[in-house]
Design goal:
Elements (H helix, E strand, L loop, with lengths): L1 H8 L2 E4 L7 E4 L1 H4 L2 H13 L1 H5 L2 E5 L2 H13 L2 E7 L7 E8 L2 E8 L8 E9 L3 H12 L3 E10 L13 E7 L1
Parallel strand pairs: 3-4, 3-7, 7-8, 8-9
Antiparallel strand pairs: 1-2, 4-6, 5-6
Helix pairs in contact: 3-5
Length: about 170
């Protein structure tokens, strides 16, 4: 697909970041190109799961970059999933493994209800630990997952296997 190739060309590889042996896919050049950023948002908005969503959950921090404007385009609410200790109200917490460590994510306990269908949005799907933690948090609120969508997927790390109960989409796959 032409759009995918154009957007892929704007993602640069940074070796050994944030730790030795990690190849970081830097999306900042894509974000700096208004046309490319808009094309990525158009893709997110075109997904069947986006059409079914009553809320968008964005994962800190780059999931906020895509999730918040997507929520505005879809005229639905935006819910941030943040790292531990960043939310000011009662929160559910979920620990998860990263490609290069471990962390904890949180969501406000009252952010979603059982009537919500949620699309989780993030910039990158790697090992799937972050996305799985976000999906678990969504379910802790009583809401349903209608999908998960990512700008980039590192397919060799098989992260989508940790999200068996919802649609998983990625615009660019490595």
């Amino acid at each position: 697909m032409v759009v995918q190739d154009e957007l892929r060309a704007l993602i640069r590889d940074i070796p050994d970041f944030p730790a030795p042996g990690i190849l970081f896919r830097d999306i900042t050049p894509l974000l700096n190109d208004a046309r490319a950023f808009n094309q990525a948002l158009d893709w997110f908005a075109s997904l069947p799961a986006a059409g079914a969503a009553t809320a968008i959950v964005g994962v800190e921090s780059r999931g906020f970059i895509f999730g918040a404007p997507l929520a505005v385009r879809l005229n639905v609410g935006f819910v941030p999933v943040r790292k531990a200790g960043k939310l000011p109200h009662a929160a559910h917490a979920q620990e998860y493994a990263l490609e290069y460590g471990a962390n904890t994510l949180e969501i406000h306990q009252d952010a979603l209800t059982s009537s919500d269908a949620v699309l989780v949005v993030d910039d990158l799907l790697a090992t799937g630990g972050t996305a799985q933690a976000a999906a678990r948090l969504v379910r802790m609120t009583g809401a349903e997952m209608c999908g998960a969508a990512f700008l980039v997927e590192l397919g060799g790390l098989k992260g989508r296997a940790l999200l068996p109960d919802c649609s998983v989409d990625a615009l660019i796959r490595y």
